[in-house]
TrEMBL record:
<dbReference type="Pfam" id="PF00378">
    <property type="entry name" value="ECH_1"/>
</dbReference>
<protein>
    <recommendedName>
        <fullName>Ethylmalonyl-CoA decarboxylase</fullName>
        <ecNumber>4.1.1.94</ecNumber>
    </recommendedName>
</protein>
<keyword id="KW-0963">Cytoplasm</keyword>
<comment type="similarity">
    <text>Belongs to the enoyl-CoA hydratase/isomerase family.</text>
</comment>
<keyword id="KW-0456">Lyase</keyword>
<dbReference type="InterPro" id="IPR001753">
    <property type="entry name" value="Enoyl-CoA_hydra/iso"/>
</dbReference>
<dbReference type="InterPro" id="IPR018376">
    <property type="entry name" value="Enoyl-CoA_hyd/isom_CS"/>
</dbReference>
<comment type="function">
    <text>Decarboxylates ethylmalonyl-CoA, a potentially toxic metabolite, to form butyryl-CoA, suggesting it might be involved in metabolite proofreading. Acts preferentially on (S)-ethylmalonyl-CoA but also has some activity on the (R)-isomer. Also has methylmalonyl-CoA decarboxylase activity at lower level.</text>
</comment>
<dbReference type="InterPro" id="IPR029045">
    <property type="entry name" value="ClpP/crotonase-like_dom_sf"/>
</dbReference>
Length: 259
């Protein structure tokens, strides 16, 4: 199975379970996330939701290009992009706090998934970046919209997106993207982070979450995320994008032969 859904002590966890593919998102993972969200949206017993990746190398490396590279036109790419944007909007508007446990590299769409969460608990050894620009596209799952809503400085957000660079955990903390940087065992760090919030009744967290999501409705966040997906789909069909992806996949194949 490409994903795992677990419920433990009023905490629901969705784990992307494709470590050999650096936890890249494919259709099965997207469908699993949809199932996870459906189980949480009306579930008043869940106090916290967690998103993470299997292993210790990657949180998520974005979309699986070996599957999605088959999309050549905007019309072919948009359904996938808008579907994932819709899922991430639902993730961001879950009624309970949502925590991304960034236990390894988070790049491209992986950063978008983490950005849709309320908190990003990042391992000190992890690195992350909105590297979509290196493939001649923009974020396509609504991640830019999430950042412009959540980060306080416009220039930091725009720089984070448009430079398409990889950042260290400490740099991400300074930019305001990482909520907390943790050392040692990822699960222990997550448990400590959640334990500090457990002393407050879950209804308090849910009430503040309602305030936040009401604001996102007023700011048309969902519609803006879908429009972001549409803009990405237009770049997706460009020759520059297809060439960049082909070069990336060729490089990846060459590197695999060297191992």
């Amino acid at each position: 199975m490409s994903y795992k859904i677990e419920f433990n002590d009023n905490i629901a966890t969705f784990t992307i379970n494709r470590p050999a593919m650096r936890n890249a998102i494919n259709t099965e993972v997207m469908d699993g996330l949809a199932s996870f969200l459906a189980q949480l949206e009306e579930n008043e017993k869940i106090a916290f939701a967690v998103i993470t990746g299997s292993g210790d190398r990657a949180f998520c490396s974005g979309g699986d290009l070996t599957e999605f590279h088959g999309y050549h036109t905007a019309d072919e790419a948009f359904p996938m992009l808008s579907k994932m944007a819709g899922l991430l909007y639902r993730l961001s508007t879950l009624p309970m706090p949502v925590i991304a446990l960034v236990n390894g590299a988070a790049v491209g769409g992986g950063c978008e998934i983490a950005s849709a969460c309320d908190y990003r608990v990042v391992m000190s050894t992890a690195k992350a970046g909105f590297i979509q620009g290196t493939l001649a596209i923009t974020s396509g799952w609504g991640g830019a919209t999430q950042l412009f809503e959540k980060l306080s400085r416009h220039d930091h957000t725009l720089k984070l997106l448009s430079e398409a660079k990889i950042h260290t955990a400490q740099q991400l903390k300074e930019l305001g993207w990482a909520t907390e940087v943790i050392e040692g065992d990822a699960q222990v760090g997550l448990d400590c982070f959640i334990d500090r919030m457990k002393s407050i009744h879950p209804n308090v967290h849910r009430s503040y979450k309602r305030v936040a999501t009401a604001n996102w409705v007023n700011n048309n966040v969902r519609e803006r995320m879908v429009e972001e997906a549409r803009q990405c789909s237009l770049l997706w069909e460009s020759e520059a994008h297809h060439q960049a992806v082909a070069e990336f996949l060729n490089k990846k194949t060459r590197n695999s032969y060297k191992r």
